[in-house]
Amino acid sequence: MAKDPNNNHFFERVYALVRQIPEGKVTSYGAIAKALGAARSARMVGWAMNASHHLEDVPAHRVVNRMGLLSGKHHFEGTNLMQQLLESEGIQVENDQIIDFKNHFWQPEISSE
User: Which are the contacts of 49, defined by CB distance < 8 A and separation ≥ 6?
Assistant: First the structure.
């Protein structure tokens, strides 16, 4: 399957935004999509996150679903790596869900592109 150059550009924009998420904060796939001006592309943000694990400077563990669930945890090595990374930043997780999601949520700025 040929790579779509538009997807590569979108993925790079996702990674640039994810790199801005402060330590101890999380955001959602949908919030990233909306910030990039592609509100209906949350699933594509998920694909970008799944493809980012070779990029050490992209904190993919800080991206969760809109309810604070660690929906991408299966794409991390080890059983609980995503949870461990979040907990190392002071974010409590129980039953694969961030306990105080509202307090830890980071709202990215909406792009004017």
Answer: 14, 18, 29, 60, 63, 72, 75
